[in-house]
Design brief:
Elements: H1 3-16, E1 29-36, E2 42-49, E3 55-57, H2 67-78, H3 89-104, E4 116-117, E5 126-127, H4 130-143
Antiparallel strand pairs: 1-2, 2-3, 4-5
Helix pairs in contact: 2-3, 3-4
């Protein structure tokens, strides 16, 4: 993912709003990936593009009617005083799963979740196995 490709998608969405009755991108899109900086270092990126074509970078975000406010409030409460960019990969995964559990008021089982990961060590998108997700769920249950 790159800032430029996100900008391009947002620009397409914005241009389509200029025509009456035309809003083909009637959804918000969350784009997540790694971007290589001029220095050669890799940095995680999270962008949210809305149907009108505006976009913003985030450390953590959500989309949906009620879920957005609840998820963002949960993230702010759980990570108060800390910095999202300093989270380890494992802590970020645990925070994401516990946020879902809190917002949806549900205790998930591993087969009910799909967790995608992109990291500085491995720039390719991969999904966690059920065993890895189950380990995360156990860690969250033991902490609470």
């Amino acid at each position: 993912v790159s800032t430029q490709s996100t900008w391009g998608l947002a620009d397409i969405a914005q241009v389509t709003t200029q025509y009456i009755g035309s809003r083909p991108m009637g959804i918000a899109i969350i784009i997540i990936g790694m971007e290589q900086l001029d220095s050669g270092a890799w940095e995680p990126r999270v962008f949210k593009v809305d149907p009108a074509g505006s976009y913003m970078g985030w450390f953590g975000t959500a989309t949906g009617q009620k879920e957005t406010e609840a998820a963002l409030n949960y993230l702010e409460k759980k990570h108060r005083g800390g910095k999202m960019e300093n989270l380890s990969q494992e802590d970020a995964i645990l925070l994401a799963i516990s946020t879902l559990q809190s917002v949806l008021s549900s205790d998930f089982k591993a087969p009910e979740l799909e967790v995608g990961v992109v990291s500085e060590d491995n720039h390719k998108f991969r999904t966690l196995s059920e065993a890895e997700i189950d380990k995360c769920l156990t860690t969250i249950a033991e902490r609470d």
